[in-house]
Amino acid sequence: MPDEKHMIDALTAFRRELHRHPEISGQEADTASRVYDFLKGFSPDSMRDHIGGHGLLAEFRGNAAGPLVMFRAELDALPIAAISKQPYRSVYPGKGHLCGHDGHMAMVAGLAYHLAEKRPGKGSVVLLFQPSEEDGSGAQRIISDPAFKTYEPDRIFALHNLPGYPLHTMVVSKSHFAAASRGMHISITGKSSHAAEPEKGINPAQGMARMLMKFKALIEDKKLFSDFSLITPIHARLGSLAYGTSPGEGDIHLTLRSYLDRDMELLRKETEKIIGEIASQEKLLCQIEYEEVFPATVNDQDCIRLLEKTAKKEEINIEVREKPFKWSEDFGHFTAKYPGALFGLGSGKSQPALHNPDYDFPDTLIPTGIRIFKNLYEQLLNK
Questions:
Q1: Coil, strand, or helix at residue 342?
Q2: If you ran DSSP here, which 8-state letter would residue 45 be given?
Q3: Does 4-177+296-381 match 180-294 in CATH topology?
Q4: Is 138 within 8 Å of 131 (Cβ atoms)?
Q5: Which one of 171, 176, 200, 295 has the largest count of C-beta atoms within 10 Å of its C-beta?
Q6: SS3 per-residue string spanning 194-241
């Protein structure tokens, strides 16, 4: 077995180096290069980079044919300035690893120590490092890349650290783990006129106000949706600051959110229906675009049972949620196509929340994540 202290010290240093150099979605070239250089020292049987953008993977093969088990980590950081006095604080202004993806990378990369010393009994273990999780585009780009076809998994797992839960506690959901969400951008066009003669134009203000009130009424209709559904207005703009002009255009940005994909589809249709009806009544033209689309993350039942067995064997406390988390994760693209599971790992009750400027991944969690992942592939590949 690899020397435990040396391994954890090296992975802690690696995590902190990643923390010092955060890169946001779509810009993770240097992060991917650091991960690639770290992994190649363990002599994987194959490595691929530039998958789905800046994505990369390393494969460790067993001596016999068998399933391919994949573990995913995320490469990207956030466009949020970190508040930190740590010597490994971010060197890039306005950017920070404030979701713990640096820690997730260290845990998945840490499996290479065990795999380099002892390959799985059969099949393959693939360590996948995915770009652009935060904007919801990375997982689908990975899946769509022809290079990924060689590595399609029979099982795929990922974790997310969870502030507010006891340190090292495994958090699972029997079915849905994270909600579906999508950003909606409504571009609205009327007709500008002089502010003294608004009747000669079409000011979108009233139509926009009516839409926002209708959206609120829609999600208050509890009989319409099967489960939790939400519309959050996040930004609105009407014309520009010109006191002599009655504006002729505007924008509304919303986040649609639901536990169930079928409720998301209904929410989308009903929202579009409201927009169309009010636009017609107010003589407005509306164009709708969607951004940052996340499907619900739905876990495979067999994979959940494997996690429960792992928690028991590793003597890790486990907590089962009855409802999904309200936030979204693009790992749902993977679980829609392959049997898999996303689970949580408590990062401390007093840990600042994800995306907060004072959040910092606890290094003490690294060996726990490695133990869980290692036990999972041993259950599947060392029988």
A1: strand
A2: S
A3: no
A4: yes
A5: 295
A6: ECCCHHHCECCHHHHHHHHHHHHHHHCCCCCCCCCEEEEEEEEEECCC
Interstrand relation of 46-51 and 176-178 (parallel, antiparallel or unpaired): unpaired
Of 17, 20, 22, nearest to 38 by C-alpha is: 17
CA dihedral 214, 220, 223, 229 (to 10 degrees): 100
CB-based contacts of 18: which residues, under 8 Å, 6+ apart? 31, 34, 35, 97, 102, 105, 106
Domain at 4-177+296-381: CATH code: 3.40.630.10
In order, the DSSP letters of 10-42 are HHHHHHHHHHHS--BTT--HHHHHHHHHHHHTT
pLDDT tens string 55-90 = 999 999 999 999 999 999 999 999 999 999 999 999
pTM: 0.93
* Tokens linked to 371: 């133990």
Are the C-beta atoms of residues 232 and 254 closer than 8 Å to each other? yes
For residue 350, count other CB atoms closer than 10 A to its CB.
8
- Could you tell me the residue ranges of all domains in the chain? 4-177+296-381, 180-294
Q: What letter would DSSP give residue 78?
A: B
CA-based torsion, 77, 78, 79, 81: positive or negative: negative
Q: What is the rounded distance in angstroms from the CA atom of residue 216 to the CA atom of residue 218?
A: 5
Per the CB < 8 A criterion, the answer to whether 24 and 76 are in contact is yes
Q: What is the pLDDT of residues 307-332, one digit of tens each?
A: 999 999 999 999 999 999 999 999 99
Q: What are phi and psi of 91, to 5 degrees?
A: -95, -5
Tell me the C-alpha distance between 98 and 100, whole Å: 6
Q: Which residues contact 190 (CB under 8 A, 6 or more apart)?
A: 201, 202, 203, 204, 207, 247, 248, 249, 282, 283, 284, 285
Beta bridge partners of 78: 96
**Letter string b/e over residues 173-203, b meaning 16 or more CB atoms within 10 A of that residue's CB:** bebbbbbbbbbbebebebbbbeeeeeeebbb
